[in-house]
Write a structure and sequence with these properties.
Elements: H1 2-18, E1 23-24, H2 33-52, H3 55-71, H4 73-82, H5 89-113, H6 129-164, H7 189-219, E2 224-225, H8 243-247, H9 255-274
Helix pairs in contact: 2-5, 2-7, 3-5, 5-7, 6-7
C-alpha cells in the first residue's frame, strides 16, 4: 500500500514538474501577436480618453441652454441679435447632440477594452474560463466585428451623402454640403456624420484587439499570463476591480501597467519566500 501511494505521489510530482511554469508578461514584454493587440488597445484607450472630454461641453451647453430658456429668455434674444447666433436655443440644442454623438461613438471601443459595457451574463458567469473565452471569441467572430463593419459601411455612405449634397461646381471640399433644416442651425453636418464612421472604426479595432488576445488564450501556450481585457485568468476569478475603483483612472497612470507591477512584486515575494 505504501509503495502504491509512493508511486502515485512520484507520478503526481513528475506531472507537476513536467508542466511549464507560469510565465507573466508586462505590456512592454508581450510576445508576437499580443504586441499587435496591445498596440490596438492603447490606441483605442487614447481615443476613448479624448472622447470622454466631450462630456464637459455637453453638460455645460445643456445646463446653459435650459437655464437661459427658462429664466433669461429676453437676455438670450439680445445675445443672439447683438453678440453671436451661437447663443440661440436651436443652435445650442444641435451642439448638444453633436457633443453627445462624439462622446458616445469615441468611447464605445474604450468601454469594451475596459470591460465596462453591460453584459447579460445568463450563460457566461455559469461556465469555466475556457468556455468564457470561447463565448468571447465566437461572439467577436460572428457578431461584433462583422456587424460593426456593416454599420461602418452604411455610416460611410451616410456621411458621404451628407458631404455631397448641395455642392455646386467650384465649391471647396470643406465648404457646402448638408446643413441644418433650421435656418439658425449648424452647417457642415457631414463632419459629425464622419465622426460616426471614425468612432465605429475604433470599435472594430477594439474588437480585433480582444479577438487577438482571446485567440492566444485558446490556441497559444497555456502557461503564458498577461493582462486580459474582457476575461479573468482562473486564478484571478473574483479579484477584478469594478465600479468606482475601475473608473478612477486619475489615481493610476495606467491600470494595466499597475496590475503588471503588482504581479511582478508578488512573483518576487514568492521567490524570496521560496529561497
Amino acid at each position: 500500500m505504501t509503495n502504491v501511494n509512493q508511486s502515485a505521489s512520484d507520478a503526481a510530482l513528475g506531472t507537476e514538474a513536467s508542466s511549464p511554469e507560469i510565465q507573466y508578461f508586462s505590456p512592454d514584454q508581450l510576445p508576437g501577436i499580443l504586441r499587435v493587440s496591445e498596440a490596438l488597445r492603447r490606441f483605442v484607450d487614447r481615443v476613448g480618453r479624448f472622447g470622454a472630454w466631450f462630456a464637459m461641453p455637453l453638460v455645460l451647453i445643456t445646463a446653459y441652454d435650459v437655464f437661459v430658456r427658462k429664466t433669461l429668455s429676453t437676455q438670450q434674444i439680445w445675445l443672439v441679435e447683438n453678440v453671436s447666433p451661437i447663443f440661440g436655443s436651436t443652435l445650442l440644442q444641435e451642439l448638444e447632440w453633436h457633443s453627445h454623438t462624439v462622446l458616445i461613438t469615441l468611447v464605445l471601443g474604450f468601454g469594451y477594452i475596459w470591460n465596462t459595457h453591460v453584459r447579460v451574463d445568463l450563460v457566461r458567469e455559469r461556465v469555466g474560463f475556457r468556455n468564457r473565452a470561447w463565448l468571447e471569441f465566437i461572439g467577436l467572430t460572428i457578431f461584433l466585428i462583422p456587424y460593426t463593419c456593416v454599420v461602418v459601411y452604411y455610416a460611410a455612405v451616410y456621411a458621404y451623402d451628407s458631404w455631397a449634397i448641395n455642392r455646386p461646381a467650384g465649391c471647396a471640399w470643406w465648404q457646402c454640403g448638408e446643413i441644418s433644416a433650421s435656418l439658425v442651425g449648424l452647417s457642415h453636418r457631414w463632419i459629425i456624420k464622419t465622426v460616426l464612421v471614425f468612432g465605429l472604426g475604433v470599435t472594430i479595432l477594439a474588437g480585433i484587439s480582444v479577438w487577438l488576445q482571446t485567440a492566444v488564450v485558446l490556441f497559444g501556450p497555456k502557461h503564458w499570463r498577461y493582462d486580459l481585457m474582457t476575461l479573468e485568468w482562473p486564478e484571478d476569478l473574483g479579484k477584478s476591480v469594478e465600479g468606482k475603483e475601475r473608473l478612477d483612472l486619475n489615481t493610476l497612470v495606467d491600470q494595466v501597467e499597475e496590475r503588471a507591477r503588482l504581479r511582478r512584486e508578488k512573483e518576487a515575494a514568492d521567490q524570496a519566500a521560496g529561497a
